[in-house]
Input
Amino acid sequence: MAPKGDITNESLTAAAFTRQSGVFDDIYANNTIVHFKRERVRNHVNQYLQPNSNILELNSGTGEDAIYFASQSHFVHAADISEGMQQELAAKVKKNRLEGRITIEKCSFTELGALQKKGPYNLIFSNFAGLNCTSQLQKVLLSFKPLLTSGGLVTLVILPSFCLWETLMVFKGKFKTAFRRFGSKNGADAHIEGVHFKCWYYNPSFVINTLKDDFEVLGVEGLCTFVPPSYIEHFAEKHVTAYGLLKKMEDRLKDKWPWRGIGDYYMITLRRK
Output
């Protein structure tokens, strides 16, 4: 059973994203860097994913990735703890006539043993730091193996404990942003739509060491290491030339040390032995 504090934090996180669910897509619809991030993540996954795969998506949100993968002829079981997010996803599934490709289940990623649809899956996928909303990432990771086929994949997009761009914000006087990942062992404060909750930061080494007995690492890439985080609004539009150069630098160095581990996020894919 999850510690009481973590259960409370999950409830708060679910409440926050349920409040935001109705406007979530609108907030990011015209954000150039969000689109860049989604394309990078999908390209990363597609280099490993086999056709007609069975995917378990954790913290599926409003279903942007579920819709994408289903449209590529994969099958997606979308799990999320936020009722509001699942309602938005259900509406999209119906609108896109993907009922045969996407199923939905309300389930916390800390309780995957309670999933009604246990697979087996060819891929477990979690995008954009949903897994940073728990202090129990080790427990989550160790629950993956029974849900996967032999040779099944895990792709996670996680916030590391150091972000180069964030730290540089100190020179703009944004000290809270610059240092929020430092000293966050007991969780850093976050808030959405007036609801406060905590998040934790995990480096690639944490994931690798937790899963090393049963999984091999296929790839680690930094995301928004050179390209700035998407919350730096309108950077791509205001600095077109610089943005183009930074994208080229990131594409060239995304999987090189130290750049793969000091972006706003990193992407990691592992394969079950």
Summary: The first strand starts at residue 54 and ends at 58. The chain has a mean pLDDT of 96.
